[in-house]
Fold these 3 entries.
Entry 1:
Amino acid sequence: MMMAQRLYEAGHITYMRTDSTNLSQDALNMVRGYISDKFGKKYLPDSANQYASKENSQEAHEAIRPSDVNVLAETLKDMEADAQKLYQLIWRQFVACQMTPAQYDSTTLTVAAGDFKLKARGRTLRFDGWTKVMPALRKGDEDRTLPLVKQGDRLSLVELTPAQHFTKPPARFSEASLVKELEKRGIGRPSTYASIISTIQDRGYVRVENRRFYAEKMGEIVTDRLEENFRDLMNYDFTAQMEDRLDQVANHQAEWKEVLNHFFGDFTTQLATAEKDPEEGGMQPNPMVLTSIDCPTCGRKMGIRTASTGVFLGCSGYALPPKERCKTTINLVPENEVLNVLEGDDAETNALRAKRRCQKCGTAMDSYLIDPKRKLHVCGNNPTCDGYEIEEGEFRIKGYDGPVVECEKCGSEMHLKMGRFGKYMACTNDECKNTRKILRNGEVAPPKEDPVPLPELPCEKSDAYFVLRDGAAGVFLAANTFPKSRETRAPLVEELYRFRDRLPEKLRYLADAPQQDPEGNKTLVRFSRKTKQQYVASEKEGKATGWSAFFIDGKWTEAKK
């Protein structure tokens, strides 16, 4: 959706938050003219193809289409590679939907073998039609050519190939399959799918591994609590039914006050019940499960807690008055990130086979690493069940097996750690707090440059000033009061040139880049996710002009359009 937003803002596509399939007459005339000129009359149907919209689709806008069908994806030099691919997909769908059907010659052979009947199907393409611009997805042997035979011919057995098939459980949702499921159940709209998917990740309800969603403990707890007290709201049909009612209001088929009164009448009753004590039917709390582990700061007992960042140990003294309160926490590393050093290469297999069961309720236990000597096993029914066990041994975190990393600040070794936000390298020197990220490819991130204060550049949305930071996506300007102020923007080359003497040596080449394009438009520093390099591009009135320059062989070179 972010790429679609960029394409829309640049004027390359029409409004993208719509589920309409309608096209304006101007769009139809444009695409039919293009098909006739580029492919010929045989690819153009006698009249425009019309498509039925889904029930209750919001059709305030056209279907998503290119603003100009003559603009091809390869000409969008000002856009990222992913945006160009998305534009190509939109362009192909737009053109293909107004072309003639593809034509095939299909053949089916039925062969009698004793008491059995065997069938073979094949087809050959006779006229490509719309597949000229959008190749059709084909099954493995769908387009094979069958031999010429006549009815009654006796066939010889050349080979018998046995094949074994197993049923598989449903695959975990990917982002695409989850959107399809939301569409199937009538939940959400194209404009809300992206926010739904980002929200369940931001709140720690799910995590993404290998592009698949996995439920987290916090998500399970929230779901259980809501299903107990707000069963109607958690019903899959609720959102779809509410969408229908809102559509009825929009179509003047229902009064909005009646719809809201009906909803809030039931919701207010359920909310009042949820606020009662658990003994009276109220929502169950998410209590801390006390353990025998001592707090390293105050000596009180640590307890098992669950938050949006995962399961962790927190001091039981956190609930005390401010002067006595202890905020000490211990991060827990999930078992799938831990290797048992004593077990060697079979650690993962043995861990799966030896999954512990809670001694109190029999539920499978989730395991976490406390430190290199202790592992904590927590009942999977936590916090409803307070069962836990502590295992002693020798353990280490999986992930980084590369060369020894030296701290760039003090020269000490850096070791792999696990925090609330994932793995990172931390300096072993207690007086040095230096850390470095672990990149997605498993490598240690290069050392970060310290922020460069630029008090001469005030922020627009607060009283703060900008500092120049060097992040994973290149340099950028950010408010010095982050996170209080989250204002950021790309730096102008002329700003970097102005403060060139303050820049680290490795960033000074950016200050030497062209400050304007040939038309006099100012240039900004950008970052290419494809090449992992920084470049400069010009903008006019907040929109990219298409001009850019790259640092090649020690000098800045203007890119060819």
Note: The chain has a mean pLDDT of 86.
Entry 2:
Amino acid sequence: MRSSRVLFFLSLFIISLLLNGGVSAQPVRFIPLPPTNIHCTAIQDCCYLQWEMPESNPGDPIPVGIKIFKDNELLDSIEPSTTFYYDMTVNCGLYEYWLTTVYLVSPGNFVESDTSNHVIVNIQFSVAPLPHTENWESCNFSYNHWYLSSPSPELLQITTNPGSTNCYCRFGSTISEDAADVSLTNFYMLTFLPMCSELVVSFDLKCRQTTASQDTFRLSVIDRNEVAFFFSDIVSSTDTSWKHYTFAYPIIDQICERLRWTSVGAIGHLTAEWQLDNIFYFEHLYPATNLQVYQENNGNRLTWSATEYQSFNSQRKFHIIRYLNGDSIMSLYTTDTTLYDSISQPWMYCYTVTTESNAWIYITPSDPTPLICADYTRIINHDRNIFMLSPNPVNNNLCIRYNGHKAELLLCDLTGQLVLKKSIPSSPTGEYRVNLPATLPDGLYLVRLIQPNNDQITRKLIISR
């Protein structure tokens, strides 16, 4: 009995399927997928990105683009047929990349996938030493100490590393071969600016010894406490040919004062030192803080605070940009922490301050300070009730409410051109009416009230007929 009932309902189900055209398949929801297997390789001064496109099923929307993001910003959009990308905008430091895929699901309808896995790459430039032909003051090994004519070699050259946004300083000094068993020449240092805190020392060394005795030479980076926190040893040999040496020292958060060369061996303990006063061991310039602006006479007085540097204070300057109506209209420079800006027209003036190097153009400036604005612009801080305009916007008849002594009223357009001048007498009611010329076009004007003591109050007026 039970089996008969099961067969009966099964028959009804089959008949229902036949009557309704069979089983209808539910549509599969499309999920946009990002690129996969992303990896990044640092190649000299660029970042090489590679990835794989996600697999697609028949009937899926087609990908129409790849978006490449770097450090939370869109870097580029490229064709989906490409699976690699060269980022030539990198400098030394850490960078984070990720990608998304853009699909066309219907005409004019695009959908973007979730982000791919993030990859982080550390860019560190490695630059070969430059050819060095300049000769400096010489000294020899026959004395107990080497004597350079200048304990602090002057800056030989500052230039840009080809193919890189980084820059370097190059110093040089030559040791002569007179009465000496060992010569040191083509000596120079490279310091990467401003993010790669690395000191690169390169020199050529030649030994004139013909005996089997060996001498050990040590190149040390000395801090202010006479501590050699980095050093390299070179052992001489009977080979009398010139040999080239290059050493790189990471100097992040280190205060390096001198580069010391010492020799211990058959020729005695010989020492030479080079001051590293011109080595920039800080990573960047810090922005100014506590920027303030206030009205002073017929202009704006700006003041700010600056972070002090160990040996860079006198070579620092501040770049002040003045904005009018959102546009940069003037650049001002000073080495002080205050600036007076004379104002010729009443308006809204805004300022930012950026810290820059006053000596080396290749040091990256600091971030600018937040924008600060002066809304009064040559307006003395009076009570607004002293001078009021109504109606505003106005058609022809303007009512001026002024609680004060006799004054001059100037109406100017936005270019500063005077279009109307009136004398306002003292009034018991404090009201004065002006009929505006019918020839004045509609627009925004500035109404300036000049009081007997030359104090000025400015209001904006809209003429609309």
Note: The first helix runs from residue 2 to 19.
Entry 3:
Amino acid sequence: MAEGVNQQPAVKAGVSPADVGGGVRTAVGGAGAVFRLFLEVLRGVFRRPFQFREFIEQSWFIASVTILPSALVAIPFGAVVAMQTGSLVQQLGAEAYTGATGVLAVVQQGAPLVTSLLIAGAAGSAVAADLGARSIREELDAMRVLGIDPIQRLVVPRVLGMMLVAVLLNGLVSIVGISGGYVFNIMLQGGTPGAYLMSFGALAQLPDFIMSSIKALIFGLIAGVVASYCGMNPKGGPKGVGDAVNLGVVLTFLLLFFANLILTAMYLQIVPPKGS
């Protein structure tokens, strides 16, 4: 009599609880490492000697790779916002507030986000690539052996430079975006200069511009810290540098949108709308 063959049940391919737990631990550990780097950067700002020359050089480099793209993006962005908001307010019968809606959309949301995305994409990738190349060449370890803190020497000037340029670019994008929206509103939507400016003055207030600058400052800080962390911790040699750059850009984008949500909610709760 033939003996029956015991067949083992097939193991279904999938994600095990151990894999999920490992991923969560890795994410939490990475978040903690980024926060620790932020604290070290904050401490390094007040340590002497301050690397002023490195700060100027990095600020100039960051500005040189972001000014032209920011201006080119701001023109169509302001025009699109003006046309879209203008069309909506006209459908609602509030043509008198076309200028205010377009300007506030650019100042409160558009300019900080456009600036931060360009800072993260252009400057952040360059910073991550530079620090990653130094890391795989063991320059950072050599600096530590010589008693030089690479965070104070390299990271702090780059983070402060990204914060400074982010605030300046935010003003540039706001001006260019508002100007582009103004021109398109007058030329394509039949608006008048007086009505555009009057509606802007009726709803806009000084805290709107202050909050826009604060957002840009915080976004520049986030982009600088994340790019520096990813650049200082590449894995896998030269290929790991490219992976670190891509990871830094993606993480920065996610954190920027999350931070924008929190800052916007806080602002709307603290500062009441004008005329309310």
Note: The chain has one domain: 47-270.
